[in-house]
Design brief:
Blueprint: H1 11-18, E1 22-25, E2 35-38, H2 48-69, E3 85-89, H3 91-94, H4 122-130, H5 133-136, E4 141-144, E5 148-150, E6 170-176, H6 183-195, E7 199-204, E8 223-224, H7 235-238, E9 248-249, H8 261-269, H9 273-287, H10 293-308, E10 312-315, H11 323-343, E11 355-358, E12 371-372, E13 377-378, E14 387-390, H12 393-396, H13 402-413, E15 421-424, H14 442-450, E16 455-459, H15 485-490, E17 493-494, E18 497-498, H16 499-515, H17 517-521, E19 523-528, E20 532-540, E21 543-551, E22 556-561, E23 571-574, E24 580-582, E25 587-592, E26 597-601
Parallel strand pairs: 3-4, 3-16, 4-7, 7-10, 10-11, 11-14, 14-15, 15-16
Antiparallel strand pairs: 1-2, 5-6, 8-9, 12-13, 17-18, 19-20, 20-21, 21-26, 22-25, 23-24, 23-26
Length: 603
Amino acid sequence: MAKHHQSGITIAQVMHLAGFRLRFFCAKTPTLAPNFSFNLFPIRFHMRQFFRVLLLALALSACSGLRKSSPRSSSAMPFLWENANMYFLLTDRFANGNTANDVTLGRTTPPAKLRGFMGGDIRGIIKKLDDGYFDRLGVSAIWFTPVLEQIHGPVDEGTGVTYGFHGYWTKDWTRLDPNFGTERDLAELVDKAHRRGIRVLLDVVINHTGPVTPQDPLWDNWARTNPQCNYRDYSSTISCTLVKNLPDIKTESNAPVELPPFLQKKWEQEGRLQHELAELDAFFERTGYPRAPRFYFIKWLTDYVRRLGIDGYRCDTVKHVEESVWAELQKEAARAFAEWKKAHPAKVLDNTDFYMVGEVYGYNIASGRDYDFGDRKVDYFAHGFHSVINFGMKYDAQNPSYEALFSKYAAQLQGPLRGKSVLNYLSSHDDGAPFDKQREKPIEAANKLLLCPGAAQIYYGDETNRSLDIPGTEGDATLRSFMNWDELKANRTRNGFQTKVVLEHWQKLGRFRKAHPAVGAGTHTMLTEKPYVFRRTYTAGGYSDTVVVGLDLPKGEKTVSVAGAFPDGTTLRDAYSGNKTTVANGKATITSGADLLLLERVP
């Protein structure tokens, strides 16, 4: 150990002479934080103050170093995207935190019902984050619709006047839309989410620009306006426009393109043209990429990761873009994430890699790793994606058997998809035929989604029984009403279910999932068929987690088998009721008013 040159004593002796107690918590979560404690006795020494200052500097340096380079203990609970409890919301439809930005950029034409901006914004998400709403729901990641600047004009193609409130009609990838907020707002959201151990995903679009309107020109030489996709094979799914007037970016091209004149003019008016041009020059010089359309977008999207510490992307319209493009995006995003971590060691949650989940529309977990275009199969997991959205769960959940659902998913995730995952959902922003569209089975929906192997996506309002069928709407607008905070406050009853009762059920299951990686990422074993009881176990890197869950049990006293999961004498807690019991003869008995058990070991 290095010595103090003036006194000839070691650093350890300096710490001993300082004569006071220090505690430093270097991790975000107190239960996981390494605790540095030095109990020192006071002595008389003419350099006491000097050594105290030196000790403080040394300890802070050590703490910083641990934050920067030391992984969490292998016995600590890991964060696993495979077990994520992800909350998906439409930014404009969740919560209004700033009424001053409800109308911006001249968007004053009256829209059709639920097809215009309604005031939801990033500050609204922050407010609910501050209120602890996501914590009580056990959310471990938040995904919200794109917040980049949308086209300014409205579109009317048969469904009534529509604005880009949903975020998928981007005009400028380098700036946030003022209706949603500012980059400072987004930075605050990411920081506050991270302090609570919640990851943040950006929803990103590379496939298309926004529609062309009188206020929003075509990206000349960057995008095609025909043919329209007919989805017969690989080519007719990618090199085409999804719908009329939704220009398709030429992501296959390596030909250099100049910036669209309208974008340069816009940047000049905003006083940032030279800055943006210089950044582009630096990016292309560093990477050696051609100045082809896709690489501009990759640069602009990864900037948010590098500046803000975004944890991952939900990638839109994945099967409509060459799979190699997603691998290129992942490579640059991972580099940007590593650079952010290096620049902000005190803010790093852990050593989890940058995450990408893809919307491969129509993908089903039963397909394993491949998506079949008819003339070609593509393994998107091999092209940058850790996970893809599972569009099959809404069908699988129709089977009344929990075991049929859970065992099927466990077999796929522990078999062909081992090391990867799927993001399960039961309702979403563009699925017109979700599970339980009339909201008649909100408790069953929670049980199947939140207790199923794989990651779970809660669509905003699933947990509050928000209506998915709004009279007077056209198309997917009916799925996109404003979050039903008013119904929650009034404890509105829908189809016999009180809103607060439904929310409490989702909260308990969500917190249980978040606390136990075994739920989504563990191996699944049915213990008894009647009553239905199963075990999930996850073990990796010195960490182990086991839970036992019983469903459709009698209310009141219930006894279930836990043999093979917990030995006799183990104290268990039912995370649903809070009641405890001790295992005897391979069984656990709990009395509660619920018809399910969420059994966990009491530390």
